[in-house]
Write a structure and sequence with these properties.
Layout: E1 8-11, H1 17-28, E2 32-37, H2 40-50, E3 54-58, H3 64-78, E4 81-86, H4 101-122, E5 126-135, H5 148-167, E6 174-180, H6 198-208, H7 217-229, E7 237-240
Bound molecules: NADP nicotinamide-adenine-dinucleotide phosphate.
NADP nicotinamide-adenine-dinucleotide phosphate binds near residues 15, 19, 38, 60 and 61.
């Protein structure tokens, strides 16, 4: 398997969940992959688990300076990049009347500003013909309870991505949006839902998602590989949600 032979990819939020599964698949397909995350120990463990071809760079995507440090590190080690996947994200489910300004700023700092300034810093390093993937969410286009703040922060990056697809066309850099539905990752433990309420959430999801289950990170990784490797896929929003956008 060598769909990405000789390519260099950066995946933010690559130490966990969808990002880690994608990093593993990209390495299996021949890429060198730089994964990021804030937790150094989790990052080190992920690099070790994925093995040769993976390396880590620790930091917070909400910190604009982080992106220039990452760009410099990647430039010095690899010279250039072929694939940039802006995937790091957070969610805390809350009704709008309970959202604090701090919570608002945190969601937009990580989910939106982190993507914008990540692309600003890394785009100059992307080879002509390379590509960018942003991980948005089904929530950006479908109304879901208590998702308003998160939905707004994810809708912003889908809009950025469509504009970038045109801004970068002279360099033949494709830009696509990966929009997962509910996927079984650590993020489900960070929704602000108590352990006691989790079985009810799982049952609700099994009854709501047409495929009858959560997605698996590996299924999202396969979709990311399609976006990263098919040279005629540009400006699309790929929903990988078990059909949940239909219900
Ligand atoms: P996950 O397992 O919790 O992974 C989230 C990743 O983002 C982790 O690697 C985390 O690493 C990183 N991250 C969070 N805040 C960060 C920050 N400030 N700076 C740097 N890295 C940060 O969740 P996941 O499900 O794989 O999520 C991946 C993406 O998919 C997210 O953008 C999420 O919104 C989106 N998504 C997920 C689902 C789902 O149901 N799972 C559905 C729709 C969209 P550290 O904690 O070490 O920083």
């Amino acid at each position: 398997m060598s769909a990405l032979k000789g390519k260099v990819a950066i995946i933010t939020g690559g130490n966990s969940g969808i990002g880690k599964a994608t990093a593993r698949l990209f390495v299996q397909e021949g890429a060198n992959v730089i994964i990021t995350g804030r937790r150094q120990d989790v990052l080190d463990a992920a690099v070790k688990e994925i093995g040769t071809g993976a390396s880590g760079f620790c930091g917070d995507v909400a910190d604009v300076e982080f992106h220039s440090r990452l760009a410099e590190d990647v430039r010095s080690r690899f010279g250039a990049v072929d694939i940039y996947m802006a995937n790091a994200g957070i969610i805390n489910l809350t009704d709008s009347d309970k959202v604090s300004p701090q919570e608002y700023d945190q969601h937009f700092a990580v989910n939106s500003r982190g993507v914008f300034f990540g692309v600003q810093a890394i785009a100059p390093l992307i080879n002509d013909g390379g590509n960018i993937i942003v991980t948005s969410s089904l929530a950006a286009t479908k109304v879901l309870p208590q998702h308003t703040l998160y939905a707004g922060s994810k809708a912003a990056i889908a809009a950025f991505a469509r504009n970038w697809a045109i801004e970068f066309k002279q360099r033949r850099i494709r830009v696509n949006i990966l929009s997962p539905g509910p996927v079984e990752t650590e993020i489900l433990g960070k929704l602000g839902i108590s352990e006691a309420d989790r079985p009810a959430l799982d049952e609700h999801m099994a009854n709501t998602i047409p495929t009858g289950r959560y997605g698996r990170p590996e299924e999202l990784a396969q979709a990311a590989l399609l976006l990263a490797s098919n040279d005629f896929v540009n400006g699309v929003e790929l929903h990988v949600d078990g059909g949940m956008s239909l219900v």
